[in-house]
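Predicting structure from sequence has reshaped protein science. With that in mind, we have picked out one protein's residues alongside their backbone shape tokens:
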Amino acid sequence: MGLWERVNRWENSHRFAIDATLTGFAMLITVPFSRDTGSSADVYLWAAAVTIPLAWRRSRPVASAVAVYSVALLHLMAGHWLIFPGDVAVLAALYSVTVHGPRWAHRMAITGALLGAALSSVAQPYNDPVSLVGGTIFTGTIALAVWAFGLVRRQRRMTIDALVDRAHRLEVERDQQARLATAAERSRIAREMHDIVAHSLSVIIAQADGGRYAAEADPAAATRSLGTISETGRAALADMRRLLGVLRTDSADAPGSRPRSPGLVDTPRTAQQVADAPTTSPMPAVHDLDALVHQVRASGMRVSLVRMGTPRTLPPGAGLTVYRICQESLTNVLKHAGPDPAVTIVVQWQPAAISVEVTDDGRGASAESDGMGQGLLGMSERAAMFGGAVGVGPRPGGGFRVRAGLPLPPVAEDDEPPASPPTASIGPSHPARPTETDVAAHTRRHR
């Protein structure tokens, strides 16, 4: 805060004390030197009475103006048609009520000042018409000039107050937008971390349990489990680095790093340095579902992937949403469906939408739940961002089903290629199955 701003704040918070002090100094000049056309001794009392109300000119502008005008009218009726310089308080009161008072008050004040100028001219000892008109015009012109100057000062004050209020509201809005953006980003990162960690840990736990039981009877199976665990851990680590890489500062731009001179060849980095460097490779999308299915099959689950329709280019983020929904669904199957479930993933491309359905023949409604439901909530939030919806629930014949649909921009009939026949990627021991079309149960299993 600058010096001038601190002075203004202090001055606004001590208005009465400052005005009272200035009024006292003004009385030292107006009272002793006040004169009128006569030689009455009470002129000093009238000068003091008309000046004292100026101590409230900003804290109580209307009351101060009424008091000053009343005293001026009374001394005019008492025969003192002009007390100078005491009657200058009338102009000071007019200016103060114009700047600090309500609108009706300063209008009444200028009207009273003009009427007072006319009465003062009539009450003067000179009865000639020239003196009467000249005195009225002269006094009224001074009053109008003071009133106009007060209006300019009032408008400037209102403009400054409006700018200060607008700046305050913009600061509040900026802080709110920053908080909303921070909350949205935290929610997005938490959703991505949940999908990455939950899926990878589920696969790792399943492989670790299977490898532990198969270690004695089939050491080769245990070795394969360890390999799957290693690959899954590396993939999860790469996904986490890809997600959090935007939050890091590149080492070349970090403070204290040595700038690279033009024309110099970079020093080769070790494999560990390459692995630790943040990556900016694209996030998973629909075309990465094959790798996801292959990873889950490696844990021993029977998974089928069926594609129907003609693939199209998805809007940014929509492909990641489809991938994460399938990933979360497969993670829930690993965690809750029971031993040896069979899973079918159907991705159907429609003219104005893409639908994904993940069904299994596991425990269904009888599956145990951890009560958190963060995975289902994350799927719903992802689909809602693109105007889609997610439906989950047990299947009528047993098992569980997750169905999601995302709207897409429609394709013109002239530009739409002929639909390709459905293709399936079948697991080693599970043939492709037709999918159900209706969900009868509305009970949601919290996973």
User: Anything to note?
Assistant: The first helix runs from residue 3 to 13.
